[in-house]
Design brief:
- The structure is a homodimer of 124-residue chains.
- The first copy, chain A, is mainly alpha-helical.
- In chain A, 64% of the residues lie in helices and 5% in strands.
- Chain A has helices at residues 5-13, 16-25, 32-36, 43-55, 75-85, 88-118; strands at 59-61, 70-72.
- Chain A has a two-stranded antiparallel ribbon.
- In chain A, a hairpin with an 8-residue loop joins strand 1 and strand 2 (70-72).
- At the A-B interface, helix 1, helix 2, helix 5 and helix 6 of A face helix 1, helix 2, helix 5 and helix 6 of B.
């Protein structure tokens, strides 16, 4: 079974070099040589990463023989965000809970400090 | 080098079974046996997927000896969305462009239909 589109997208994004390539392409199209420069990687290594990105539909490459400029195609990212958005209420909930916990902790601390002051236990 | 957190998250999401497990856990905590049921998978196969999800921080598992319920932890998803959001303008742009193109196409079609009508080339 060939991997589904969303799996291909997430797999392509699961590598810091590939994410950095996408970051570079967000500033404009670039050739393989231009992309290889900042990464201190061999051209075959970069080409392999570009192949993964191309198969996932995150980049497109020109068809001109020698110079095949790459450009960003962000549509698969939209699909990834749409999938992730179904879980928004869960991460918002967990932050709310953390927020509640921190507030509770601060309230307790204040109470304790006040208690110490009232009991003249403060060191002067 | 151990993979960075974001790479772990994307890699964990790059599998339809793991995404389905997260979907099941979004409806409430579940044991490994409960999770294995709908997938028609062996317990070791499900356990392997749960291991990947746990290492990425997308689920947490209880520590009670026999029954180790799994629950969803959505925080890594927020980080993934935050990263993807940097590219929003690109996918919105590409949809805008598609929209422009379709509008242009419709306008051309209308013009052609009108032209044919004016030239009495319509078949009655």
């Amino acid at each position: 079974m060939s991997p589904d589109r969303l799996s291909l997208t997430f797999a392509a994004l699961a590598d810091p070099t590939r994410r950095a390539i996408l970051g570079r392409l967000s500033r404009g199209g670039a050739s393989v040589t231009e992309l290889a420069g900042p990464f201190d990687m061999s051209l075959p290594a970069i080409s392999k990463h570009l192949g993964v990105l191309e198969r996932s539909g995150l980049i497109a490459r020109g068809r001109r023989a020698q110079w095949r400029p790459c450009r960003l195609k962000a549509k698969p990212m939209k699909e990834a965000v749409d999938w992730l958005e179904h879980y928004r209420r869960f991460w918002e909930q967990s932050f709310d809970r953390l927020d509640d916990y921190l507030r509770e902790l601060q309230a307790k601390e204040k109470k304790q400090t006040r208690g110490k002051k009232d009991g003249h236990s403060k060191i002067c």
